[in-house]
Amino acid sequence: NDSLLSEVDYQRGREEFRAAVVCHDMTHIPASASWPNLQSAGVIVSYRKLDNQKQGELTYRYYISSANLSAQRLAEATRAHWHIDN
């Protein structure tokens, strides 16, 4: 299924979980008429915990796109963007 991707990484004292979910049925998005070229909506869910922390951090990032994205492509694009920011 190209609409869902999940990954788990353990490295350098850090545990990370990432999931990407993509929807191509824009009828569920009420404002989609405002974006005539809208093809995809997606969410990246990430959880990160360092070994020395009691609790980790859970984040949700939402995206819309005029491209017909797979979950894999959404994950790659957001990872590249956050890599540049960090």
Brief description of this entry?
With 86 residues, the protein is α+β, with helices and mostly antiparallel strands. The protein has one helix and four strands.
What is the end-to-end distance?
30 Å
- The global form is elongated
Derived from helix and strand composition plus strand pairing, the structural class reads alpha+beta
Using only C-alpha atoms, the radius of gyration works out to 15 Å
Task: Specify the biggest β-sheet.
Answer: 4 strands, antiparallel
In DSSP terms, counting alpha (H) and pi (I) runs of 4 or more, how many helices?
1
Secondary-structure element sequence? EEEEH
Q: Which strand order do you get reading across the main beta sheet? A: 1-2-3-4
Write down how many β-strands occur, each being a DSSP E stretch of 2 or more residues.
Answer: 4
| Average residue pLDDT | 88
Question: Percent range for helical residues?
Answer: 10-25%
Strand-residue proportion: 35-45%
Question: Number of domains in the coordinates?
Answer: 1
Low-pLDDT windows of residues: none
